[in-house]
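Summary of Year 1 activities. Much of the first year was spent building the evaluation harness for sequence design. The harness presents a backbone, in tokenized form, and records the residue chosen at every position. We chose the following record to illustrate the format because it has been used consistently in internal testing since the harness was completed.
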């Protein structure tokens, strides 16, 4: 194998003896200290620790120009002046006042510099990079080029390897010498295609001094409070020189692509952030992705070549896999698509029209072509029908049965029928073409002149003037070759009585033969620009609406994008912002089925949070029961009807015999409020003891006994004088832990008795019988027995708030108080009781209920209405018939074992709480101090959402994952959640 002789090829520098390093430090810079080899691809870098500070001695490769090294030092000084707060490696002059000093090592004359050691950690691994981190990289690249904009560059003595103006030459020179010629061929093809797209712009691109390597491993980071490493400084100015300004951004974007879970769309935060600092011109946007491809190609060939020249260079060899990963990601989508996506991200899409058809594609197509609604909000896809493999065909058959000869799908629609569940990666849901479902044979003709090629048994492409028409499902009647406009191409193929014609337009892409039929949401805008709407080839446009579904792509895409962007703003303007939403940038969720949710882009999510919908979303039996009852009657409970009686009997029948009287209300807040009012009326007192860190509702009385500072930071300080608290019986992080948690009960009992002795006997003690707000934590054994006894000794009533924990969620018990072996005086229930319908209840003894008459009468307009009562009955029926409590016990037990196994491997998990499907994973920064990992928990939730799992923090410290899914959760979905959490804890958030 010959060695290329191009001037820009640089052999790595050989090892330098540490004694020689120490000598030059002392003689040239007057510095002594300990020395550590940091490694480098072509130079030699040594960290120098001294008593007064840390430095880096950079010994330059013999090929380095001393004038260029001085220019690097000058650039750092300039950036230090104009970029406040950015950590930079400033140079220290030697004893003679020069920043570049000579040395001799192994008989070779070299030069070196002494730079400040920049504190912080580089991002040397391939862990996940959050969008905020990627954005910071883009921002730093923008700040650096802006800061260097007026700098004068030094003309290099030889062409520079990393100057992307030389990229194709580098690749073509090195690729033939690589050991893996299959990879070399791929890199060559991609580079040449990228260069072809770049070439028309090369004379128009701005050129300036650039850093040339603002990448993940050339920035230093400090950990933010959430544990993410945020870039705060830039190091290694060794590639500084003249280059295209946009190349700085291309280099940064390329470095993102090897990180865990990264794809082409992962760079968009960096592009937006760069653009905000240094706006990109149209021509720079058009060449950005070709430059990313060229950068990754150069990295692949140079990295492999360096290992050939210097097999012992571990710095170069360990980078080979990540360099190949960058290249693969860069070419995983056509450059033309990615360029369109970048333009869309910056609000600068190109409006491209398609040629007018000279002849109808389907001249025999009838006028009554019905449009199939396959969107997330489709009325035809309820009860999970969208998951059936033949869902689209079934809807088309229904249309045919209704008398329509043809049914069509819609271009650019995010199809619910393409959504997947229990999948960490988003499904390709955006339709890049359309399908026509035809009831009878139909002829196909060429809409314009062109050249026909065939693929597969029934595939055909008609190519003309920069646009391809792709047809699937054709019984061809024409040979490959030229055709004229209107020439018959064939008929729609009949496959066992099913005639479906796929129609797709595509602008040719240099490195792709055929586009996919569907795109993932993150790249949908780019693909839709490359694959325009073909509907007008066979359908006369409908002008009855401002943007009909057969309108040009730009009109529909703009309307949808504006609607999505404005919805959150409209919510904030009309819906009180104190009614918060999950996630800073929440997905727009418009569909639910069982334990899954779907957003408007067809992204499926595993719902591990929704304890309200205990049966699961879209339950067909509940939907049908409500529909029937609403058609028949809905009024208030002052009228006499059967369902309110039946629900009351069913509820009381699920409880101990003495709890025989039911009040029906609308919510858990109302239920707790009413429970307290019953206690006041029964006892003639008002004082209440509540447990700290608890949440019971938002009404006057339920809020008064809510002590969680997560819900109200002033909860404890703002309690009315009739509310008294006892310590949260937290056996994990409370003042009594482990076996000592048994002390909580006698202390609470003593507090209750002490209040009575002071003349403040209780009306009630209120407590969740399973500690929900702390993250699903069991109360210490015997806790409620002792506290209830003390409460009753002083004449008070015991209120069990079962709003979150009741209805079989624990798996082992239907009611939480059963786990404690007690019987309360009053039970409150809501949430699960209505499966999302506003329904709550208070169940108590007859004499307690009757005592309320001293306060007047009780009435709830919707509580116990016919519809609400039917909802309550249907939920109870489903819980029984579907054996959901047993499922909670089985799947919840399985999931807890999985989570405990994760805790053995991930020290961030301090504890796994709970029972059944009422679980909590508590995150701590230190297992000894139990410092809450609050910010990390929020960041983990964001990353889990990206992986298709919806979960949120809970507890006063907001460091516990709240795991309360619908009780229909399956073991497969439990595995999906555990695997996703393992992924996040392993690869970062």
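For this record, the design step produced the sequence shown next.
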């Amino acid at each position: 194998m010959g060695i290329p002789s191009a001037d820009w090829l640089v052999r790595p520098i050989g090892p330098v003896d540490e004694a020689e390093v120490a000598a030059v430090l002392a003689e040239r810079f007057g510095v002594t200290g300990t020395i550590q080899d940091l490694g480098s691809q072509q130079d030699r870098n040594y960290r120098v620790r001294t008593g007064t500070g840390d430095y880096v001695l950079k010994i330059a490769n013999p090929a380095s120009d001393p004038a260029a090294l001085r220019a690097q030092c000058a650039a750092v000084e300039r950036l230090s002046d104009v970029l406040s707060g950015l950590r930079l490696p400033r140079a220290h002059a030697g004893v003679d006042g020069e920043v570049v000093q000579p040395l001799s090592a192994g008989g070779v004359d070299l030069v070196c510099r002494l730079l400040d050691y920049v504190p912080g950690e580089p991002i040397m691994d391939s862990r996940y990079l959050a969008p905020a981190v990627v954005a910071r990289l883009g921002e730093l690249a923008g700040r650096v080029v802006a800061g260097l904009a007026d700098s004068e560059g030094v003309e290099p003595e030889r062409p520079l390897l990393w100057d992307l103006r030389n990229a194709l030459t580098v690749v073509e020179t090195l690729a033939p010498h690589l050991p893996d010629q299959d990879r070399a061929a791929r890199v060559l093809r991609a580079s040449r295609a990228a260069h072809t797209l770049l070439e028309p712009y090369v004379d128009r691109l701005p050129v300036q001094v650039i850093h040339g390597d603002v990448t993940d491993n050339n920035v230093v980071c400090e950990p933010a409070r959430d544990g993410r490493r945020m870039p705060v400084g830039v190091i290694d100015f060794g590639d500084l020189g003249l280059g295209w300004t946009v190349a700085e951004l291309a280099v940064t974007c390329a470095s993102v692509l090897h990180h865990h879970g990264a794809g082409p769309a992962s760079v968009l935060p960096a592009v937006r952030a760069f653009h905000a600092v240094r706006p990109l011109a149209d021509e720079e946007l058009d060449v950005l992705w070709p430059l990313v491809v060229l950068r990754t190609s150069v990295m692949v060939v140079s990295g492999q070549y360096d290992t050939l020249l210097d097999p012992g260079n571990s710095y170069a060899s360990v980078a080979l896999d990540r360099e190949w990963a960058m290249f693969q990601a860069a070419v995983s989508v056509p450059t033309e698509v990615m360029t369109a996506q970048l333009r869309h991200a910056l609000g600068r899409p190109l409006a491209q029209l398609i040629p007018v058809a000279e002849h109808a594609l389907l001249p025999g197509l009838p006028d009554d072509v019905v449009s199939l609604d396959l969107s997330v909000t489709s009325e035809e896809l309820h009860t999970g029908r969208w998951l059936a493999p033949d869902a689209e065909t079934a809807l088309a058959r229904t249309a045919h049965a209704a008398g329509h000869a043809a049914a069509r799908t819609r271009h650019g629609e995010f199809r619910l029928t393409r959504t997947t569940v229990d999948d960490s990666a988003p499904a390709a849901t955006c339709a890049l073409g359309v399908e026509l479902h035809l009831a009878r044979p139909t002829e196909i003709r060429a809409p314009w002149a062109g050249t026909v090629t065939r693929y597969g048994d029934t595939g055909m492409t008609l190519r003309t003037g920069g646009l391809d028409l792709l047809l699937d499902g054709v019984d061809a009647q024409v040979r490959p070759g030229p055709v004229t406009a209107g020439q018959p191409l064939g008929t729609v193929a009949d496959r066992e009585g099913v005639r479906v014609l796929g129609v797709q337009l595509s602008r040719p892409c240099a490195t792709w033969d055929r586009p996919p039929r569907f795109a993932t949401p993150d790249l949908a805008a780019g693909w839709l620009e490359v694959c325009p709407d073909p509907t007008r080839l066979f359908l006369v446009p409908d002008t009855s609406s401002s943007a009909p579904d057969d309108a040009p792509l730009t009109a529909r895409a703009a309307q949808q994008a504006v609607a999505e962007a404005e919805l959150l703003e409209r919510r904030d303007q009309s819906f009180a912002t104190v009614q918060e939403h999950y996630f800073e940038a929440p997905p727009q969720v418009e569909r639910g089925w069982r334990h899954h949710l779907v957003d408007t882009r067809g992204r499926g999510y595993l719902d591990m949070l929704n304890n309200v919908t205990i049966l699961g979303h879209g339950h067909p039996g509940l939907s049908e029961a409500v529909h029937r009852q609403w058609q028949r009657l809905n009024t208030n409970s002052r009228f006499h009807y059967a369902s309110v009686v039946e629900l009351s009997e069913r509820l009381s029948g699920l409880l101990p015999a003495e709890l025989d009287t039911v009040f029906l209300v609308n919510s858990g807040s109302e239920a707790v409020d009413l429970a307290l009012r019953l206690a006041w009326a029964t006892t003639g007192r008002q004082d209440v003891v509540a447990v700290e860190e608890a949440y019971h509702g938002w009404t006057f009385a339920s809020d008064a006994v809510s002590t969680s500072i997560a819900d109200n930071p002033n909860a404890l300080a703002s309690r009315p004088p009739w509310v008294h608290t006892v310590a949260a019986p937290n056996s994990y992080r409370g003042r009594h832990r482990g076996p000592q948690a048994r002390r909580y009960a006698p202390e609470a009992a003593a507090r209750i008795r002490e209040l009575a002795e002071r003349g403040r006997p209780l009306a009630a003690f209120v407590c969740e019988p399973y500690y929900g707000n702390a993250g699903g934590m069991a109360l210490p054994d015997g806790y409620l027995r002792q506290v209830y006894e003390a409460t009753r000794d002083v004449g008070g009533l015991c209120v069990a708030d079962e709003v979150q924990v009741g209805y079989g969620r624990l798996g082992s018990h239907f009611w939480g108080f059963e786990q404690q072996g007690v019987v309360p005086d009053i039970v409150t229930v809501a949430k699960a009781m209505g499966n999302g319908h506003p329904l709550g209840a208070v169940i108590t003894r007859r004499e307690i209920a009757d005592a309320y008459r001293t306060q007047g009468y009780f009435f709830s307009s919707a509580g116990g209405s016919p519809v609400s009562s039917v909802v309550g009955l249907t939920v109870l029926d489903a819980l029984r018939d579907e054996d959901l409590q047993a499922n909670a016990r089985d799947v919840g037990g399985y999931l807890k074992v999985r989570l405990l196994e994760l805790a053995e491997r991930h020290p961030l998990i301090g504890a796994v709480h709970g029972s059944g499907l009422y679980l909590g994973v508590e995150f701590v920064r230190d297992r000894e101090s139990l410092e809450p990992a609050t910010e990390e928990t929020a960041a983990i939730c964001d990353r889990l959402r990206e992986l298709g799992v919806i979960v949120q923090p809970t507890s006063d410290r907001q460091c516990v994952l709240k795991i309360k899914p619908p009780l229909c959760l399956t073991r497969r979905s439990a595995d999906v959640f555990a695997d996703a959490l393992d992924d996040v804890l392993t690869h970062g958030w």
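The longest strand covers residues 108-116. Quantitative recovery figures across the full test set are reported in Table 2.
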